[in-house]
Amino acid sequence: MGVLQIFTLLGALGMFLYGMNLMSSGLQKASGDKLRGFLSAMTSSPFKGVLTGVGITSVIQSSSATTVMVVSFVNAGLLTLTQAIGVIMGANIGTTVTAWLVSWLGFKADISILAIPLMALGFLFSNSKKNQRQNVGELIVGFCLLFLGLSFMKESVPDLNETPQVLDFVKTWSSYGFGSVLLFLVFGTLLTLVLQSSSATMAITLIMLSMGWIPFNMACAMVLGENIGTTITANIAAAVGNTQAKRAAMSHTIFNVFGVVWALILFKPFLALVGVIISLFGLPNPATDGFIVSSSTSDEGTAALYGLSMLHTLFNTINTFILVWFVKSIEKAVVWIIKAPKNQESETFRLKYISAGPLATHELATEQAFNEIIHFAQISRTGLGYAAMAIKESNSTKFEEYREKLVKYEEISDKIDCEIAAFLNSVSAGDISETTSIRVKAMFKIIGELESLGDSGEAISRILTRKNIHRKDFDADTIKRLEDMTSVVDNAYKVMLENLEMAHKGTLRDISNAYNAEDRINNLRNILRDAEIECIENGQKNYQTSVYYMDIVSELERMGDFIINISQDLERAFIHR
Q1: Looking at the predicted structure, is the pLDDT value of residue 526 above 90?
Q2: Residue 300 CA to chain centroid, in angstroms?
Q3: What is the pTM of this model?
Q4: Which of 44, 52, 296, 417 is least enclosed, having the fewest CB within 10 Å?
């Protein structure tokens, strides 16, 4: 095997992987909203979770992407651990669709013949002005590159009959009985760890099998190894996540390792079952001892390819039907293996839904960001509560506590704003749909408004501090008026949070509630200001005290402006016209 041939093989593998990523990306962008809806309809039923995992993985053609997505959604609180385990089980079944596509279109139908003409269609779609057509164009180009890469890989693999020394080496590997099974299992695991794609490893295994490099039983051992290797992707994603995310990734490992253990114990009977099923289609039994493909175009080749795909499907389906009844037991096991940190309860004001590490998918990562924004808004509303308490507090010690809290909340707002912005930058740096791009821009504006609300809370604490330094006090009537003002601002907060929740669920239809809340703030501000000016003119109020009072009213009205801006951002980006 020459140097050029090796580099051609590596290049073809790169084309296959890039095509798969491009196809998956196009599918995700084309069906992003549908996938969000699919996940939002999730229930606690493990069977529905399995069906969801099958459906999503069949659509995006990557169990790794699905499991990373599930881990990030557990981290974001969108899925419980029980739901995640069900989805992961389904993802393992869904990924077998790829093996069947490659077996049929890549080997038997040889779709690569049509790949170049299809490229032209993909190019035309990708140059369309309509965003959805561009996504479909990306999907088509990825599909073509995937099967072109597979075709080049097949062509670059040497014929073993022309290289007898390699044939002898492969035969030696296959001559250790059950030891060879374990050897090829480890090889499949390591290859998947390196490529980070069980679909790519499956394609390589199918090529090796169809070219006669390895016997059928050793190819089956490699497939079992690939099911262990693919779990590493989710564990890498969970490494920087919270405890629940780590547990979700661990459940994936437990699921696949358990399956491999029973498949190894029943290795020969399991292969015999696969052989019987393939024989029912009128093809040779690939599970006979020493079965090696002599020609990939013969019935032998077809039987081997379909047999390997059947084993992959049966393995994951049987494993799911066994373990779906023990989801609660798996949950207990991972909770026992991965303990919650002792200081978890004291971890206040950290991001709840966003963690560093690989994004599940750029399209669906906005779910995490939106959850974090809702959390940010709830924190901001708590800050207003401290401002209200500081306004009516006459005890200097207690007031100082509230002032420090408002300063702390302003610092928290700055930190959360920066961290969400950094996350949104990483999302927008990826290849996302036009709809998602518009929503990401809206989220940037929203976190800016929430950060400004934190500044306003701290500004109120400064006004009150100056009032206290100059030994000015608000009378009971003034405090009552400020309480009324903070109450209408708090109501606007409540409306804003409702709109955020509805936008997240896709049920926001209009923001008239926000405009009504803003009108109440402005009307009350005008009434309070006019009444105070009249009191000053009549000499009923100390001018300096009234200035502090009016400054607080103005700051509260400014908070209302920031709040209505958030609902307006939601209206522009999340309401479907």
Answers
A1: yes
A2: 42
A3: 0.60
A4: 44
